[in-house]
Amino acid sequence: MTTIQRVAILGGNRIPFARSNTAYAQASNQQMLTATLQGLVDRFSLHGERLGDVAAGAVMKHSRDFNLVRESVLSTTLSRETPAFDLQQACGTGLEACMVVANKIALGHIDCGIAGGVDTTSDAPIGVNEKMRRILLDAASAKTAGKRLAALSRLRPGMLVTPSLPRNGEPRTGLSMGEHAELMAREWSIAREDQDQLALASHRNFARAYDEGFFTDLMTPFNGISRDNNLRPDLSIEKLRALKPVFDRKVAPGQGTLTAGNSTPLTDGASAVLLASEAWAKARKLPVLAYFSFSEVAAVDFFDRKEGLLMAPAYAVPRLLARAGLTLQDFDYYEIHEAFAAQVLCTLSAWEDKSFCRERLGLAKPLGAIDRSRLNVNGSSLAAGHPFAATGGRIVATLAKLLAQKGAGRGLISICAAGGQGVVAILER
Amino acid sequence: MKIIEVGARRGPLAAMAQLLGAARKPAGPVLELPQVTFVLPRTSLDGAHLAKYRAVCGFTPQQGVPLIYPQLLTFPLMMQFMASSYCPWPAMGTVHLSNRIEQREALHAGDVLRVEMTTGGLFAHDKGQVYTLELRILRADKPVWQATQGLLRVGVKAPAGKAWASSPGGDAALSRQADFAVPADIGRRYGRVSGDMNPIHLSAISARPLGFKRAIAHGMWTKARALAALLPQRPVAAATVAVEFKTPLLLPATASLWVARQQRDTQFEVRDSKGQKPHLRGQLHIGDSSP
Fold first, then answer.
1. Can you give the CATH number for the domain in which A199 is found?
2. Could you give the ipTM of this predicted complex?
3. CB < 8 Å to A254, chain B
4. Cβ distance B90 to B22 under 8 Å?
5. What are phi and psi of A240, to 5 degrees?
């Protein structure tokens, strides 16, 4: 019989996030994840330690990186006997990795572990043209030189200039994430101005947190940069208002509200979080920042039932609250991943909407409004950027430190992910 | 009130010639605007002409007859008035200041309509004297469309009348919605469709003697171009749109459209490419009650 034990968050580390094709244009996922893990190892003096497990992932991944996390671990000063594995749940990857490691610790299967994520949209995996790939496979499996030649003779020069590129879109709808978010903003009547104000608040809060030195022990410089290069400390509402909508052409011509300012840019970066049992932390005299207490995942049928693609957190949170015996107002901090300002605002509107809460969530009364001054108090993805799999680790480390600074309290994390998924969790101290 | 019936539309050039001929009028302050109504008793909404208008202004067939289009039917009446002795000022040098359109029912190609233009009031403006013209369109004796045209005579000293109040108000924050190109020949193209061949819209050479470095876009084209982007992709029945023209839009240019939407109300501005200088400012309301 196993007893459940509390899961402590001891700290986090990340490299500064960089907009696609800037500072990390030449960096690979493995380099970024290795640097991030090594930074964490250095900060907590884990050199030579055998950790229980390291779970991380990348959304955009080369096929050669099948063992990305284990290879990265091998490049650090951790014990070579530290196991590791890759997992992937789109933008929920980092938080899902935390859940998996936390659950192992909770059950006593391991004492400690690292969870994280990494992503690059600069060093993207480009595949050969699909027809060309078939020909190359045929040639490789041909048993005679003649058959191999026959296969290769089907190659055409055009195949070289039309490679298979990764798409930032939903396979089932053919729409990009931004187009889906634009549709959601229309459905929930989210005003452009409200989105721009949320983006501005994110940058301001993030810049203030930098000024206060909040990120100093959460970050390791990499490739010559020591702060996230998407942050615009001098951003103004006028600059945000001056940007044109970018996702409206297909879904809402001339009516768009999502711009480059209130949507996250493609970003490169990596993050990692150190989780452990209290006993393990105590033995190493490592202070506990916060505890990982509840988690929940949900998915919506965005295709047939036409629920908004990024609305799954709106479903996941009430389920999480019910299990935890809490209300939406019982939190000191709300960390809602800002994939798009519209996503955050749609989610908040949904929780306040009577008919949505009754008909879609099956609740007697709406979850209600949150105290907006507790939302993303130190900024979020609109300012930091959003390297898909690395966002979860950034948020967990940020919230854990916020709770540690406050001394006691509770925080809610909500992350939307491709495929109509939502990954949410509660941290407490 | 004197009522003058106007015959069928005449060629725009003949009308322009008449206007230029009427240029020798005094430019001083006017104490009273003569009350007169010009009437075009029967005209039909020409589908082929509408198609040309759509092409020049950017409307789609899905938008039906845009509520700004019927204004073109009133143009011959305004021309006649300006050329007549009832109009106290020359047509040339009069600045189009504002335009407010209220449509009650959707119009359709082929509709048989009665078009009226009545002189309105006099107003004192910072830059001179304003007079208004009331435009009305009836279908089967039922008023379906009306508009108020504000015209400014610049430089009139001590103008008579109540102080002119800017109508399209609202202080919502506007955000950039779209950019659009304003081609060099748009004045000539819109001029051919609308009949307004005022030389300030045609070419730099013809505009220069009238004080413009280059030709300027017709205010009503700029308004139409903005509405093409703002109106939904379906015919609209009841709607109101009021604009005030702020600064001339010199050709060619890239203009930017700035909006703030709130349910059925849209506040908008057409600005320069940098988004700083406003060319026109307006308010659109879709539905029955006025904004």
1. 3.40.47.10
2. 0.79
3. 177-178, 229-230
4. yes
5. -65, -40
Which tokens is B94 given? 């009069």
DSSP A369-398: ---GGGBSTT--HHHH-B-GGGHHHHHHHH
Rounded to an integer, what distance in angstroms lies between the CA atom of residue B117 and that of residue B271? Answer: 31
Structure tokens at B221: 């084209």
Interstrand relation of B265-271 and B278-286 (parallel, antiparallel or unpaired): antiparallel
pLDDT digits (tens, 9 = 90+) for A103-115: 999 999 999 999 9
> Identity (one letter) of the amino acid at B130?
V
pLDDT (0 to 100) of residue B250: 96
CB A61 within 8 A of CB A89: no
3-state SS, residue B204: helix
Q: How confident is the model over B237-290, as pLDDT tens digits?
A: 999 999 999 999 999 999 999 999 988 899 999 999 999 999 999 999 998 754
Chain A CB contacts of B275 under 8 Å are: 242
Q: CB contact, 8 Å: B226 with chain A?
A: no
**Residues in chain B where the model's pLDDT stays below 50:** 290-291
Give the pair of three-digit tokens for residue A148. 């191999």
Of A189, A241, A244, which has the smallest distance from its Cβ to B174's Cβ?
Answer: A241
**What residues of A are in contact with residue B233 (Cβ under 8 Å)?**
253
Pick the CATH number of B2-286 from 1.10.10.350, 3.10.129.10, 2.40.10.120, 3.40.50.300: 3.10.129.10
DSSP letters, B155-177, are: T-SS--SEEP-------PPPEEE
Residues of B in contact with A244 (CB under 8 A): 176-179
Q: What is residue B291's predicted lDDT score, i.e. its pLDDT? A: 44
Answer yes or no: do A191 and B261 touch at CB < 8 A.
Answer: yes
A141 Cβ neighbours under 8 A, 6+ residues apart? none
Q: Is B94 helix (H, G, I), strand (E, B) or coil?
A: strand
- Whether residues B177 and A242 touch (CB distance < 8 A) is answered with no
Question: Contact B172/A241, CB-based, under 8 Å?
Answer: no
**Which structural domain, as residue segments, surrounds residue A349?**
177-212+293-428
A151 lies in the same domain as A300: no
Q: Is some CB atom of chain A closer than 8 A to the CB atom of B175?
A: yes
Q: pTM higher than 0.90, yes or no?
A: no
User: Do the domain assignments include residue A246?
Assistant: no
pLDDT averaged over chain A? Answer: 95
Asked if residue A44 lies in contact with residue A311, where contact means CB atoms within 8 angstroms, the answer is no
Q: List residues of A with catalytic annotation.
A: 91, 386, 416
Whether residue A196 and residue B175 make contact (CB cut-off 8 A), yes or no, is: yes
> B178 CA to chain A: closest CA distance, Å?
6
Check whether residue A136 and residue A183 sit in a common domain: no
Do residues A91 and A415 make contact, with C-beta atoms less than 8 angstroms apart?
yes
